[in-house]
């Protein structure tokens, strides 16, 4: 009976060691995934920030272009109205 108890303890010890090694491997994989994901998110945040700045600059440029074109439209509308009035007068 003592030998059977020793064998059970030895088997249990091997099982605990094996499970511990498996848990350590899983933890290492998860830890690596977390580190990789953190690096990826940091890069995405930096890239996204630069993209926001670029898009804001584009919006400002397009707003200026819109204002310029609206002024040109008003100028041409005024010229057309003047030309139509001159045409009717003639």
Structure notes:
With 90 residues, the protein is mostly helical. 98% of the residues lie in helices and 0% in strands. It has 1 helix and no strands. It has one helix spanning 2-89. The longest helix is centred in the middle third of the chain and has 88 residues, at 2-89. The mean pLDDT is 95.
**Assembly type:** single chain
Helix-strand topology string: H
Find the count of extended strands (DSSP E, 2+ residues): 0
Helix content: over 70%
Uncertain segments: none
Topology of helices and strands:
Layout: H1 2-89
In short:
The chain has one helix and no strands. It is an all-alpha fold and 90 residues long.
């Amino acid at each position: 009976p003592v030998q059977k108890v020793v064998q059970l303890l030895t088997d249990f010890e091997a099982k605990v060691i094996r499970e511990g090694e498996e848990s350590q491997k899983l933890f290492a994989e998860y830890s690596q995934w977390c580190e990789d994901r953190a690096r990826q998110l940091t890069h995405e945040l930096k890239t996204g920030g630069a993209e926001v700045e670029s898009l804001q600059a584009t919006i400002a440029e397009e707003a200026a272009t819109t204002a310029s074109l609206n002024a040109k439209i008003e100028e041409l509308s005024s010229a057309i109205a003047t030309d139509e009035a001159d045409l009717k007068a003639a």
